[in-house]
Each structure stands twice: as structure tokens, then as C-alpha cells.
Design goal:
By secondary structure, the chain is α+β, with helices and mostly antiparallel strands. The chain is built from 5 helices and 14 strands. Helix content is about 20%, strand content about 40%.
């Protein structure tokens, strides 16, 4: 069985999976596309033999609503990390923000966050980063299919983003801030769709 749940903010994807497992009483369960505790939204779950098909779901396009905060950077590229104030000489206009955002449409080179599950020499990057190790994660090609500006009132930019697989919205937030010269990090994130799964098609919405 493959279905979608709505993971609330504040718990890990693994914890959400444990709670679902207790509710439905299955032995074998897995999920596609991890959501950080900071994020809420669609998490696709598979049980039994269908866990072998979960990789097909990972390859589907995903939609997000993201809030980016300018004027600071974060060591984790999101709200959870240590912040550093970024000097801003001039607050960018909406037109300048739009031009910067549009520059990320299509196939781009993106460097994953150092606090991520990407493996470096066989070990997850975040585990090495937590030990204070210097990490260089090579950029990789990702696809940004669509970006819409929903609202912009300095220092917050709200976007709707449709991506291909493997895209980090944390990296996108960081990179938009770098391009504008303001610094930036991901303040909030909701995954609103994975393939055909939307919030209206999730289960256990009020029970996790």
C-alpha cells in the first residue's frame, strides 16, 4: 500500500513513520523524501512489498511553499542553525528579487547543505559537520520547474516552488540570498504536493 500523510512541523519524518506504524500495525514501512523537523507537509509512505516501489515516488515532482528570511545567514541554511548577520547596503526591490529568483529556473547546479544526509566518503554530511569537520559537498544538477513569488515584505520572501527530485529548498533560499547580496536562509517550509498526492489526499491529518 502506498499513501500520503501530512507531517506536522516539529517532528522528524522517522517519528511520523513510527506513529503511523503503531496506528496501522504493520511490520514493514518506509517513506520517500525526508522532511526536516522544521518543515511540514506531504510525506509519502509505503508498506509491505510496496516499499520496493517507493523510489518511484521520490522521482516525481514536488511542490513547496517556502519563506526565506534575508539579512542573515544560517550554518544549516534554515531556522535551526546558528545565525550570522549579513550586512545589507540596500534593500532589494521587488523587481530585483524577481530577477534573482527567475535566474534559478530550469536545470541548475546546486550545492546541498552541509547539514544534510548526503554522504561524503560513506558518512552522512551532517554527522561530519556536527563534529566540526570541514566539508566540501560538490554541486549537482537539479531541476527547478517553476517559482512564483507569493509575497515580499522585507526581510521575508514567500515563494511557491515546483521541483524535480533531489532539490534542496534550503540551498535555494541560501543561493537567492547570496545572489541578492543580502544573505538568506529558509525560515519556513511546507511541502504541498508530491506527484498526485496533495493535502486533500492525505490520511491521519489530525492524528500525528
Amino acid at each position: 500500500m502506498i499513501f500520503a500523510i501530512y507531517k506536522p512541523k516539529g517532528i522528524t519524518s522517522a517519528e511520523a513513520l513510527r506513529r503511523i506504524k503503531r496506528k496501522i500495525g504493520v511490520e514493514k514501512i518506509g517513506h520517500a523524501g525526508t522532511l526536516d523537523p522544521l518543515a511540514s507537509g506531504i510525506l509519502v509512505v509505503a508498506t509491505g512489498a510496496d516499499t520496493k516501489k517507493i523510489s518511484e515516488v521520490v522521482a516525481k515532482e514536488k511542490e513547496y511553499v517556502a519563506k526565506i528570511k534575508f539579512g542573515e545567514t544560517s550554518e544549516t541554511d534554515d531556522e535551526e542553525g546558528k545565525k550570522t548577520v549579513a550586512p545589507v547596503e540596500k534593500i532589494p526591490s521587488l523587481q530585483e528579487v524577481r530577477e534573482a529568483v527567475d535566474g534559478f529556473l530550469g536545470e541548475i547546479e546546486q550545492r546541498p547543505p552541509i547539514f544534510s544526509a548526503v554522504k561524503i566518503a560513506g558518512k552522512e554530511a551532517y554527522k561530519r559537520a556536527r563534529k566540526g569537520e570541514h566539508i566540501e559537498i560538490p554541486a549537482r544538477k537539479v531541476l527547478i520547474k517553476k517559482i512564483d513569488i507569493l509575497n515580499y515584505v522585507w526581510p521575508i520572501l514567500e515563494l511557491r516552488v515546483v521541483t524535480g527530485p533531489g532539490t534542496y529548498i534550503r540551498s535555494l533560499a541560501r543561493d537567492i540570498g547570496e545572489r541578492l547580496g543580502t544573505g538568506g536562509y529558509l525560515a519556513e517550509l511546507e511541502r504541498t504536493a508530491v506527484g498526485e498526492f496533495t493535502r486533500e489526499k492525505t490520511v491521519f491529518r489530525e492524528e500525528l
